[in-house]
């Protein structure tokens, strides 16, 4: 059961921000409620007021801006899945949305809520890192934008100030010639591990740039610069032949923690296994073939 | 500052299973409690209470939601369907028929949620593959069966709708 609360329904950012300041410390921002309502029911969070941001103008849109794509904070996972713009510019994001949690969560859960809650076991946070994502915040000191990597500070911890509202996430679509995959693995509702690999190839099949992000195994998702460095600048065939080394490098670089999904040691090993597999999927896609590999308890996007 | 719509209770109106309903609900009322305790619709069940089991699945404007973790005020102005809205009188709807034929029921506790999830999937993808059904039902837990017959029933209903069986 939920304890009683007052529900505010502002229609502008200024009103929402005003309410946040006015009721500082006794209020929570509410959109889909998939995380928040559970916390309130369990008594892990107690607030007498919720500010519903779903009616705030502009937060529910997906639009293009200067070559990037902005997803508004209150856009639901289901809308990401069906977005024509995202299907055209970031198809992997639309396809990954189809596999987040379960259909009921996808109906109501929002992109902003997903990122602002900063659950370590988030598909989007990992995948968005590989899209050089940044988040936009709006508060009394004005708007600011910061890289997603700086926004997510740790498990359930972000750089959002108490009086700020997350308004959008900005994605930078990969250049033409990029082949990519997102692979997730786990036996629970949330993934145990998520791996995003995107290789930008030149016409001669050399890897111009490699993006490798691993999430869920530690408190926050991370780009694996050392593994990216190993893959970048080399012919694709060579990178694929050396996939084991890239995978080992990624496994050595993650900071896994023990939790209900498994021990840190196990997650490090799964990182190695799935980075290697993800490279295999990308390699197949580079040949315009779909990898038909099926891995138990894993989803290949 | 102008009124930002702060309330601790709301008047809501929605259409549920073809019936118009108007009632006052506290801001913190969960849709599941309103359905079960105020409207007498006991098909949706409270089980996990954290949105992982699917026993409380209902459709809001066609989209599946967990009624256990969904504020009743959000249903204002929407079309709702619960398992009670599938059959017409004594006549079962095609998916319910398929569940009966395939024997996709054991204790029955999860069945309402399975039916609503299946209904949502078939509305969006009329002929899903067994793999797609299994994946879509990841969030609907059954502790009696092996899911096989539930998947069979949804797949069969899809094929039948297309005249393939």
List keywords for this structure.
heterodimer; A: 301 residues; alpha+beta; Uridine Diphospho-n-acetylenolpyruvylglucosamine Reductase, domain 2; Uridine Diphospho-n-acetylenolpyruvylglucosamine Reductase, domain 3; Enolase-like, domain 1; 3 domains; five-stranded antiparallel beta sheet; 13 helices; 15 strands; 25% strand; B: 165 residues; Ubiquitin-like (UB roll); DNA polymerase, domain 1; 2 domains; five-stranded mixed beta sheet; 5 helices; 32% helix; globular
Write the layout of secondary structure elements.
The complex is a heterodimer of chains A (about 300) and B (about 160).
Chain A: E1 6-8, H1 13-22, E2 27-30, H2 36-42, E3 49-52, E4 62-65, E5 68-72, H3 77-82, H4 84-89, H5 91-97, H6 103-108, H7 111-117, H8 123-129, E6 134-139, E7 142-147, H9 148-151, E8 152-154, E9 157-158, E10 165-171, E11 178-185, E12 193-201, E13 207-215, E14 222-223, H10 225-231, H11 236-241, H12 243-253, H13 264-286, E15 298-300
Chain B: E1 9-16, E2 19-26, H1 31-38, E3 57-60, E4 63-66, E5 79-81, H2 94-102, H3 111-124, H4 130-136, H5 148-161
Parallel strand pairs in B: 1-5
Antiparallel strand pairs in B: 1-2, 3-4, 3-5
């Amino acid at each position: 059961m939920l304890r009683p609360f007052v529900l505010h329904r502002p229609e502008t950012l200024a009103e929402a921000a005003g309410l946040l300041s006015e009721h500082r410390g006794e209020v929570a921002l509410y959109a889909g409620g998939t995380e928040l309502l559970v916390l309130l029911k369990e008594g892990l969070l107690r607030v007498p007021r919720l500010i519903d941001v779903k009616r705030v103008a502009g937060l529910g849109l997906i639009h293009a801006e200067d070559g990037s794509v902005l997803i508004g904070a209150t856009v639901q996972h289901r809308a990401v899945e069906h977005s024509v713009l995202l299907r055209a510019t970031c198809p992997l994001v639309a396809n990954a949305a189809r596999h987040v949690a379960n259909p009921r969560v996808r109906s109501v859960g929002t992109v902003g809520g997903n990122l602002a809650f900063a659950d370590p076991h988030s598909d989007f946070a990992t995948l968005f890192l590989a899209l050089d994502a940044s988040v936009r915040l709006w508060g009394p000191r004005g708007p600011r934008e910061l890289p997603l990597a700086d926004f997510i500070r740790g498990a359930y911890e972000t750089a959002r100030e108490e009086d700020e509202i997350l308004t959008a996430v900005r994605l930078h679509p990969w250049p033409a010639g990029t082949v990519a995959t997102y692979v997730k693995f786990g036996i629970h509702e949330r993934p145990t591990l998520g791996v995003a690999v995107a290789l930008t190839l030149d016409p001669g099949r050399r890897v111009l740039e490699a993006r490798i992000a691993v999430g869920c195994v530690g408190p926050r998702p991370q780009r694996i610069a050392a593994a990216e460095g190993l893959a970048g600048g080399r012919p694709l065939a060579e990178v694929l032949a050396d996939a084991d080394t890239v995978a080992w490098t990624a496994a050595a670089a993650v900071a896994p923690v023990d939790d209900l999904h498994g021990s840190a040691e196990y997650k490090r090993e799964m990182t190695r296994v799935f980075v290697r597999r993800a490279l295999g999927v990308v390699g197949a896609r580079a040949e315009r073939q779909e990898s038909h590999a099926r891995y138990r308890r894993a989803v290949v996007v | 500052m102008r009124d930002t719509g702060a309330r601790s209770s709301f008047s809501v109106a929605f259409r549920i299973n073809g019936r118009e309903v108007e009632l006052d609900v506290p801001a913190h009322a969960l849709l599941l409690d309103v359905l079960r305790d105020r409207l007498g619709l006991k098909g949706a069940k409270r089980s996990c209470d954290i949105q992982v089991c699917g026993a409380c699945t209902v459709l809001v404007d066609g989209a599946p939601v967990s009624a256990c973790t969904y504020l009743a005020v959000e249903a204002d102005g929407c079309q709702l369907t619960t398992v009670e809205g599938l059959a017409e009188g004594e006549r079962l709807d095609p998916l319910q028929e398929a569940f009966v034929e395939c024997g996709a029921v054991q204790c029955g506790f999860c069945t309402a949620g399975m039916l609503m999830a299946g209904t949502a999937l078939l509305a969006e993808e009329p002929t899903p593959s067994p793999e797609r059904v299994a994946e879509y039902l990841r969030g609907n837990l059954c502790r009696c069966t092996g899911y096989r017959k539930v998947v069979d029933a949804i797949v069969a209903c899809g094929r039948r709708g297309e005249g393939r069986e």
